[in-house]
Amino acid sequence: MAEKQKEPTQLSLDLEETKTAAPSKANTSSYKVVLKDEPDTKAPRPVVRKKTSVTTRSMTVKISSSKKAEEPAQKPKATPAKQGGTAVVRRPKAAVQTIRTAEQPNPHLVQTHVIRPKSNTVARPKVQPPPIGKRKGYRTSKAAMFLIPLLAATLLFCFAILWWVLSDQQEQRVEPSSLIEDRPAIAFTIERGMTARSVSLLLEQLGVVEDAQALLSYFVENNLATILKTGSYLMHSALSFPEIGTMLTAEPQMVQLTIPGAFTLKTIDDYLVNRLGFAEGTFLQSAHDLATAYGLGFAEGWLLGGTYTVNRQRAANDLALAMYEAMLNEIQKHLSSPQLEVYSIQELLIIASMIQAETQEAGQMQEISSVIFNRLKNEEPLGIDATTRYELDDWVNPIPTHALETKTPYNTRRKVGLPPSGICSPSPEAVHAAFFPADTPYFYYLHDENKQIHFALTYEQHKENIKQYR
């Protein structure tokens, strides 16, 4: 028979103190205590109270542990157990602690500013990349390695093309500076009956020599005083006495030279080089000395084409002098021209050279002259391609388009007025046409394949002539 179980002994635990305690605050806890016969082997775990803290955006207030000690400890109350139950110790419930967020105002602080809610977006610092060339740890790409040489090569190529175009368009002078020396020149004539003394004095006056007596002594000592030759001479001040004596006493070996109209100074120079074996540039220097001696603005256009007999030893100087004197004689025939009231002799010679370059037919020259004067009167570009050909020194090949479109002193398609100099040696017929042009209303003309000329009054008629004859 089983042993009757003992009823558990009920114990009542009074947790109230005899001393009346101060009423506890709401911040308390309740505990359930169960007492058993068996002793609890485990030691009760001490209750650790978490320290409360108040946090704001500006400061954090913490409650010190000293104040907590000042509060009287409230003993838990024991609830009497019912019959057959256990004694329950109840402690007041703890107040629910609310945690204040940073956005909520602190009731213990006076708010001096408006609390703004935090933005949800996180502000990231702006990354500033290092300058090019200062980066470390980067490997230069192949494209970057070849970019600078490629750009340099491209620029060099562009500069080369630009230089070629500009040099091709640059004015090509017929008188190359490398072949011409800019020096004082003197032109004079020894007339029949002049003695060695008068020649010496003349050369001293002209500045060829500094001492006429010294030159006369040289003539006498070398038996040259009685054999000085008459004629026109072109000298410069750098000549020595032997050179002067040789020039004035050389036995003439005459040669006949024919200079057709439309020959330029360079063409005449090449002609003397091939015909007489002169050094290149000899005639160019003679023409330059002639212009200097007579104070001419230019030499091209002042030399009249024709046939001349000159001394072979000094053919360059004699030819330049002979052509210039022939031009002066031709001008004397046309001093009654009404064009001299508007234009100078130099301008009329420029027109004569353009007429000569445009045609070799004397019957066409006066009508071409009328077209030139009509355009000059209306201040229109002359549009004579011969001036551009003279500038390019190319009388055979087609004129490049860029040369016709570039404004230069000799491009009469783009420039209004006359070029700065003549462009060739005119013939007597061209000089006559320049001083006495025909009276026509034409402003345009062209040559067909058979060298026949066709005139037009308007540009529309000129375009019809182009369609029909070219």
From TrEMBL:
Residue numbers marked as site, Important for catalytic activity: E358
Location(s), subcellular: Cell inner membrane
Ranges annotated as biased composition (Polar residues): 53-66
Enzyme class: lyase
Segments passing through the bilayer: 144-166
EC number(s) recorded for this UniProt protein: 4.2.2.29
Molecular function terms, GO-annotated: lytic endotransglycosylase activity
Catalysed conversion reaction: a peptidoglycan chain = a peptidoglycan chain with N-acetyl-1,6-anhydromuramyl-[peptide] at the reducing end + a peptidoglycan chain with N-acetylglucosamine at the non-reducing end
Superkingdom per UniProt: Bacteria
InterPro entries for this protein: MLTG-like
Pfam families reported for this sequence: YceG
Membrane topology: Single-pass membrane protein
One Gene Ontology term, aspect cellular component: plasma membrane
One annotated GO biological process: cell wall organization
Keyword Calcium part of the UniProt annotation: no
Family per similarity comment: Belongs to the transglycosylase MltG family.
Name the UniProt record assigns to this protein: Endolytic murein transglycosylase
